[in-house]
Amino acid sequence: GDGAVREARTRPRISKQDIMDKYNSERGATKEQLHMVVIGHVDAGKSTLMGRLLLELGQVSKKTMHKYEQESKKLGKQSFVYAWILDETGEERSRGITMDVGQSKFETKSKQVTLLDAPGHKDFIPNMITGATQADVALLVVDATRGEFETGFESGGQTREHALLVRSLGVSQLGVVVNKLDTVGWSQDRFQEITSKLSAFLRQAGFKESDVTYVPCSGLTGENMVVKPTAADLTSWYTGPCLIDVIDGFKTPERPITKPFRMSVNDIFKGMGAGFCVSGRVETGMVQPGDKVLVSPLGETAFIKVLMVDDMPIQTAFAGDCVSATISGMDQQNISVGNILCEPQRPIPITSRFQARIVIFQLRVPITKGYAVVLHHQSLVEQAVICKLVGQLHKSTGAIIKQKPRCLIGNSIALVELEVSRPICLELYSDIKELGRVMLRVGGVTIAAGLVTKVY
Ligand code: GDP
C-alpha cells in the first residue's frame, strides 16, 4: 500500500508551550498578518486614499501608472488616477465567499496588510459587508470639507452606518482618517471639531477610546500618509503618527495556534503523485505531514502527506497560513469545498440549527419566520431558513429592544435562529472568530452578516 498511510499517525498532543516555541522557531522572522477593511461615506476619498497609499508604497508599476495618467488626462480627471489603481487590483479575486472582495496587499514595518474589498466600486456596500466579515481592523475615512463631514455623519449617512456595522461584526480597532484636510487649509479647529463629534459617537457605538486613532490626511496630495507631514499649516500643530504608522500600530489578532486544528477546504484538485490536493486556510491550531485528520461533517478520516505554502513544502502549517495539502487515505470524490479538516480527538461541532446575531442590510421584503436565505460560511454555501426571530437589538448597545418581533426590516440588528438544509460545521464566534461568522444572501445579494452565538 501507501507508504504515507502506513506512516501516518495520530500525533500525540503537544503542549501549548511547545507549539508556541515551534511557531517562534519556524516563523519568528515573518511579518504579522492583518486584514483591514476601508469604510466611510461615498466620496469621502476612500479609493483615492488607498490607491495613493499603494502607489507610495511601490505596489503599482510605472507602466500601469503611466497608462492611468494618460487615460485620466484624456478625460480631464487627473484625480481619478489613484482610484483606478484600486479598481485594477480589485480584479484579482479570490474564491468562494470572497468572490466579490478585491484584495490588495502591502507591507508596513511590522505587518503584512491585506486590504479587503474594492471601495471604488459603486455597489460598494454589499462588498464592504463581505470585507467587514473578514476584517481584523477598519479604517474609517471621513471628508473634512465643510458640510461634507456633516452629510456623511447625519442619520442616513454612511459614516455612522459603517462604523456600527463593523463593530457589530466584531471589529474593535479603528483608524479614523480625517481626509481632504487640504480643503480647509489644514485647520486644527476643523480637525478637533470632527474628532470630538466622532469620538462621542464611537464610544456610544462600543469602541474603546484607546482602540481609536485619528489621523489628518489628504489622499489627493499624499500628505501625512507614508512620511511625516511637510505642509507648514499641518506641522504647526500636528505631531502624531502618519497613516502608515497608524496601520502599523494596530494590534494583530493572535494566531490561535494552540487551539484544536481546523482548516477550511476552499479548493480540491489533482496533485502530482498519489492522492489529491486541497487548499484552504488553517483557521486554528497546527498540522504537519503525517497527521491524521477528520473531514467534517463527512466523518471520514484521511492523512496529510505534504504541506505547501506558495509552492514550497513546509514542516508545519499554523493558524493563519493559506496552504495546499496533499491528502491520502480517502476518495477524492467524497470531499467537497466547504468541508473542514479537523483534529479527530477534538472535532468541530456539527449542527443544522444555530442562533446568530445578524446585521441586516437593505431588504426588499421584510424578514419573517420561514424566510429562505443562502447561507455562506467560509467557502460553504447552503440553503437555510430563518426559523425564529428571537429579538430585535439596539443598534449601538446591542440590547434586546423587542422580543420575538413579527418581522425584521432593513438596516437593523437582530438575534435569529437559522435552520440549514443539512448539517454543517460551525463554531461559536466567541470560541473561533473565523469559523463563527456567517453571511446571508438572497438572489446573489448580501442581505445580512452575522456572528454565531449558539449552536444547538
Ligand atoms: P470614495 O467614494 O470614498 O472612494 O471617494 P473617491 O476616492 O472616489 O473620491 C471622491 C472625490 O474626492 C474625487 O473627486 C477625488 O478626487 C476627491 N478627493 C479624494 N481625496 C481627496 C483629498 O484628499 N483632497 C481633495 N481636495 N479631494 C479629494
TrEMBL record:
GO cellular component, alphabetical, reads: cytoplasm
Q: What is its main location?
A: cytoplasm
Q: Which reaction does it catalyse?
A: GTP + H2O = GDP + phosphate + H(+)
Q: Which GO terms describe its molecular function?
A: GTP binding; GTPase activity
Q: Which GO terms describe its biological process?
A: regulation of translation; translation
Per UniProt, residues of the Tr-type G domain are 31-257
**Keyword set, alphabetical order:** Cytoplasm, GTP-binding, Hydrolase, Nucleotide-binding, Phosphoprotein, Protein biosynthesis, Translation regulation
Compositionally skewed regions (Basic and acidic residues) per UniProt: 3-18
Q: Where in the cell is it found?
A: Cytoplasm
The UniProt family comment states: Belongs to the TRAFAC class translation factor GTPase superfamily. Classic translation factor GTPase family. EF-Tu/EF-1A subfamily.
Protein name in UniProt: HBS1-like protein isoform X1
Q: What gene is it encoded by?
A: LOC117653335
Entire-sequence positions represented here: 264 to 719 of 719
